Amino acid sequence: NNNGNAATRVLKEYDATTKQSVTTRRMNTVIRDAISLAPAKDYGLVLWSHSLGWALTKSSASDNRLRNFGEDYGATMPIDSLAYAIPDNTFSFIWADACYMGSIEIAYELKNDTHYFIGSPTETISYGMPYDMNVPCFFSDKPDLKKACANVYIFYNSLTGEYRSATICLVDCTKLDAVAAACKKIDIANKNIDTSTLQCYNSSSNRFFFDFLQTYKQIASESDYDQLLEAYSQAVIYKAATPQFIGMEINPDNFSGLSTYVMGSSTTRNEQSYKQLMWYKSIY
Q1: pTM of the model as a whole
Q2: pLDDT 10s digits, 28-39
Q3: pLDDT tens across 107-127, in order?
Q4: Is 188 helix (H, G, I), strand (E, B) or coil?
Q5: pLDDT of residue 97 exceeding 70
Q6: Are 172 and 234 in contact (CB under 8 A)?
Q7: DSSP 3-state percent helix, strand, coil across the chain (nearest 5)
Q8: Long-range Cβ pairs for the range 113-117 (8 Å, 24+)
């Protein structure tokens, strides 16, 4: 404040020769600096950028545009590097306001970094979340994440045409180990899955983000699926989707909130990326 006028005070300057913010060192440094410069009883993190979730390429082996999370001066960040960059147990919530981040694989990768994770299994419209509605939710005494997620659904569901497109999921990451244990028991690695029947959250010509529960329901025994469903219902505490997402129908009976991957559904490059994830190492 300068005589009632807004003033800028520089707290820290960063080395301009390393422009990319999407490196583990730079992201970790900025997070730790923010905590040091602005002490608080609680922290939340909003990740806002481009993303292809855990995947590297969008379509074919000839697709040379590599992308996991983020895009800054041509650089991007693999999901396992993102998880490494974020200090453990620092954030009460991490909100990924970016495309395809709402997957079991990403929630599981970030489970040691945050209590709650929020993401979308589909793309996200360029507006992102309605920040004017959600920022007050974040700064209440206890972040009202269910209301913030509901705000996303309400905002987009009130629009028309292709803009009436949104999916959102709120995950309690402390419950994900039980989900992983139930999935390991189902043994997806040794099951045949007909992906043509599954709800998919990316384009029809490049199908590899499939609905999580629908995928496992296809291959699990009734008792094993009931066990998974019980664990999953404890982990996913809010989910919502508009009837369509940019022309792609979302069947509410098959919308579990998160996506998952079925091995053999995408490029070799994507599968190499997938095998680096904690989810793959835990259930395969």
Answers
A1: 0.93
A2: 999 999 999 999
A3: 999 999 999 999 999 999 988
A4: helix
A5: yes
A6: yes
A7: 40, 20, 45
A8: 113/83, 113/86, 113/87, 113/88, 113/89, 114/45, 114/86, 114/90, 114/173, 115/91, 115/172, 115/173, 115/174, 116/92, 116/145, 116/170, 116/171, 116/172, 116/173, 117/93, 117/170, 117/171, 117/173
